[in-house]
Specification:
The chain has 84 residues and is mostly helical. It has one domain (3-79). Helix content is 80%, strand content 5%. It has helices spanning 3-34, 36-39, 49-79; strands spanning 43-44, 47-48. The protein has a two-stranded antiparallel sheet. A hairpin with a 2-residue loop joins β1 (43-44) and β2. The protein is elongated and about 55 Å long.
Amino acid sequence: MTPENRAAYWKANVRLLAILLFIWFVVSYGLGIILVEPLNEFQLGGYPLGFWFAQQGSIYAFLVLIFVYASAMNRLDKKFDVHE
């Protein structure tokens, strides 16, 4: 792998991580803490939506992001020919 390809691979990897961490931050901190009061006006399964995001939503979002990361990294590895 050339140094240019290595740098491009690393840049794409860091960009993907930054995007996924931002999404996780918005879901867990933004929806679970900052916007909890406006979200509590809505119900999900009999519970206020803000409470749901604080207790369950951020966990589900994290699990989805794990699978998204694995899939995106597989595509990225194939693109840069570093897959197994």
